[in-house]
Design a protein that fits this description.
The chain has 251 residues and is an alpha/beta fold. The chain folds into two domains: 163 residues, Rossmann fold (3-Layer(aba) Sandwich); 70 residues, no CATH class. The chain is built from eight helices and twelve strands. The strands form three sheets. A six-stranded mixed sheet has the order 6-7-8-3-9-10, sandwiched between helices. It has a four-stranded antiparallel sheet with strand order 2-1-4-5, with helices on one face. α5 packs parallel to α6. The radius of gyration is 19 Å and the shape is globular.
């Protein structure tokens, strides 16, 4: 029997004034799985993950974590469940060094309330070693790092704080070939460690390379979910454009 999903979203809907951004969307994610979510701009992908990350609240529908119904109304609620989100525009502080960014907002302090920079640096180094990431000096300001290195820092921060689910929004946008491969390798490593990963991307090549399943959205509706090994890029592209699968129109 297949284990229960780590997260389930059931019949989730969201309005913004007269605009229905999501209509009855249901998806799930298992441990050690990468779920790709694709669709044109305005398909509802960002709204869906912002509900899961606590940036938005759903108008209706239910969310289950390990089979138990939960309420996610704030980013704090989301993080408490082990859900971490890495947006395309990384929330890194360019003027700070690597450890300061890893612990940004969750700094380690000593007994008198001062930052314990030594412990934060040691913890950061151990995390990077675990993830097989080599950055050289940790004291360098992140503004001087490459896009791929910055992406890896954001991922490391999420993993350090015990992420169970990692939401990645266009994680390799604007990265070169080698840096894209580095991020891909890191995602595969985290998948092997049991993390559930939601990948939002416009790049079907990346989605087919990394994902176990692919969810297609159009105009706020879930068109369908396909196992990657049982579909083709042409079929997924047709679902994206036409908003239907298997000859059945999706309303």
């Amino acid at each position: 029997m297949e284990p229960a999903p780590i997260i389930e979203m059931r019949e989730v809907s969201k309005h913004f004034g007269g605009i229905q951004a999501l209509r009855g969307v249901s998806i799930d994610l298992h441990e050690g799985e990468i779920l790709g979510i694709v669709g044109h701009n305005g398909a509802g992908k960002s709204t869906l993950i912002k509900i899961l990350s606590g940036a938005y609240t759903a108008d209706s529908g239910k969310i289950y974590f390990r089979g138990q119904e939960v309420e996610i109304r704030t980013p704090k609620d989301s993080k408490a469940l082990g859900i971490e989100t890495i947006y395309q525009h990384l929330a890194l502080a360019d003027n700070l060094n690597v450890p300061a960014n890893v612990f940004l907002g969750r700094e380690i302090k000593n007994r008198v309330g001062m930052l314990n920079e030594r412990i934060m640096e040691n913890e950061t180094r151990q995390m990077l070693d675990r993830l097989k990431l080599k950055l050289g000096s940790l004291k360098v300001r992140v503004v001087k790092l490459s896009g791929g290195q910055r992406q890896c820092i954001a991922i490391s921060r999420a993993v350090y704080f015990n992420a169970k689910i990692l939401i990645m929004d266009e994680p390799t946008a604007a990265l070169g070939v080698q840096e894209t491969e580095r991020v891909h390798d890191l995602m595969q490593q985290l998948k092997k460690e049991g993390l559930g990963i939601i990948l939002i991307s416009h790049d079907l090549h990346d989605v087919f390379k990394l994902s176990d399943r692919i969810a297609v959205m159009k105009n706020g509706v879930l068109v369908g979910i396909k196992k990657t090994g049982e579909t083709t890029k042409d079929e997924v592209l047709s679902m994206i454009i036409l908003g239907k699968q298997d000859g059945s129109e999706k309303n």
